[in-house]
Amino acid sequence: MNSIMSFISALGKYDFLQSALLTATMVGVMSGLIGSFIILRGMSLMGDAISHAVLPGVALAYMFGFNILIGASVFGILAALLIGYVASHSQLKTDTSIGIIFSAFYALGFILISLAESSTNLHHILFGNILAVSDQDIMTTAVVLGLVILFVVFFYKELLISSFDATFAQTYGLKVQLLHYALMLVLTLVTVSALQTVGIILVVAMLITPAATAFLWTQKLSQLLVVAALMGVLSSVIGLYFSYTFNWASGPAIVLVAAMLFGISFVVAPRQAGGQLWQALARRRRVRV
Amino acid sequence: MLNVRNLTVAYDDTPVFKALAVTFAPGKITGIIGPNGAGKSTLIKGMLGLIKTQAGTATFDQQPLSQLKTKVAYVEQRKDLDLTFPINVAEVVLTGTYGRLGLFKSPGRTERQASAAALAQVKLTDLAQRQIGNLSGGQLQRVFVARAIVQDAEIIILDEPFVGIDLQSETAIMQILKQWRDAGKTIIVVHHDLNKVSRYFDDLVILNHGIVAAGPVESVYTPANIAKTFSADLSQVLFAAGGGQ
């Protein structure tokens, strides 16, 4: 309790902590929203791949001082296109193609960062450094959050139908491929924002875990999106608290909280056997009273 | 009139069929039968442009089918469907309005009313709020027929709609097909159960890597054609008890 009070009073005192809280909340919302579509489309591996493949773009942005979003987008989309190209122009399965492309991009990113000779940067990129976000980082994150919300709101029904029944979407003329690449582009932008909070290695956890937790609790897409965003925010904020209080790296702290929320849901959520048992017990208790 | 001309589809250089030509008449329920792997689903997907075709055209009243996407409702086989998807019955039916809504428009009251009416037609109003994983096979198939109703298409294509469903659902779906026929729509049903062929269909296409026979069911559904396409034994069993009923 004491440490929670001191966390809250520190929030009132320190700008850096306020910035961290704001960023963590925004990243929690956007990764929950996009992560929902990633898990519904069975693209967890693709999400992991794209989030790693942006590394060369991030490195080049640091080296030459241009906007990190541009660098990351270029490499993210390039990776998505290459993965699609290799899978459709060979008899290899998509997961093999993903494995080849993303590891190559990741390796290239490492070499570029080592050329830039900045080991502190590397550590922050890999594991996140939420306690050091700049005002410009906050602005960038806010812009990405706005784009993500617009994307999900404007293309809600297209995202729904192409995730649920892609063949049907194709028969009525929806450009399913184009939507896929648009989603990949938005995913790269979310990755760049999540770099600050959890780092590149753990971005995939922010995409998948809160959305998976929400999936266990909901029966409608609109509810899934809201609950996933909420789980993302809860994980980020509680993780930030642990990070500040115990001086843990912010990324692992946030991801462990997200995993704990999932673990609890796995036992008690309505879509799980345990949750159904609970509900049955609750019903019986009500009958007896 | 739905007109398929010179259609050739090949997977990995092995043609499923070559230069296939067939027509489907409006105001008729046309069945497509043939052995497994004869190219039934391939013909449908080729017509609709869902797979790559090597040659050929599909036109509806002289216009290419590929430009008439909102006039076609396609109820495909449901084996690949994700039944855990967070969506309920009413929402699935509502997706039938997406094609004509186009981008940036959400379904409104008109669309919701049309969906509710379609659900009533397939007798699933009570299950409107149920998540689709909690339905029987027959109920699920009726949901997708309700979506086809909402699409308000001119051409309705169903791929094996009666596989693994209960008799009540089969009857309900057949009723809808007859209403569509009486409204002058073009209905195509890929079918596997030879028993009900002459009861269900007006026209029949027998397919086996190409057209074996096509036309009114009386003249196409003959012992000779079935023996040639499937086997003499099957033909004997089917036609032994009086005229293929």
Question: Layout of helices and strands, plus pairs?
Answer:
The complex is a heterodimer of chains A (289) and B (245).
Chain A: H1 2-13, H2 15-40, H3 44-53, H4 55-64, H5 68-88, H6 94-115, H7 119-127, H8 135-154, H9 156-164, H10 166-171, H11 176-198, H12 203-217, H13 221-246, H14 250-268, H15 273-288
Chain B: E1 2-11, E2 14-24, E3 28-33, H1 40-48, E4 55-60, E5 63-64, E6 72-75, H2 89-94, H3 98-101, H4 109-121, H5 137-151, E7 155-159, H6 167-182, E8 186-190, H7 197-200, E9 203-207, E10 211-216, H8 217-220, H9 223-229, H10 232-240
Transmembrane segments (chain A): 20-40, 60-86, 98-118, 138-156, 176-194, 200-217, 224-242, 248-269
Family (chain A): Belongs to the ABC-3 integral membrane protein family.
Keywords (chain A): Membrane, Transmembrane, Transmembrane helix, Transport
General description of the model:
The complex is a heterodimer of chains A (289) and B (245). Chain A is mostly helical. Chain A has a domain at 2-203: Orthogonal Bundle (ABC transporter involved in vitamin B12 uptake, BtuC), CATH 1.10.3470.10. Chain A is 84% helix and 0% strand. Chain A is built from 15 helices and no strands. Chain A has helices at residues 2-13, 15-40, 44-53, 55-64, 68-88, 94-115, 119-127, 135-154, 156-164, 166-171, 176-198, 203-217, 221-246, 250-268, 273-288. In chain A, helix 8 packs antiparallel against helix 11. The radius of gyration of chain A is 20 Å and the shape is globular. By secondary structure, chain B is α/β, with parallel strands linked by helices. Chain B has a domain at 1-68 and 156-164 and 184-245: Rossmann fold (3-Layer(aba) Sandwich). Helix content of chain B is 36%, strand content 24%. Chain B contains ten helices and ten strands. Chain B has a six-stranded mixed beta sheet with strand order 6-7-8-3-9-10, sandwiched between helices. Chain B has a four-stranded antiparallel beta sheet with strand order 2-1-4-5, with helices on one face. In chain B, strand 9 (203-207) and strand 10 (211-216) form a beta hairpin. Chain B is globular. The mean pLDDT of chain B is 92. Chains A and B meet through helix 9, helix 10 and helix 13 of A and helix 3 of B.
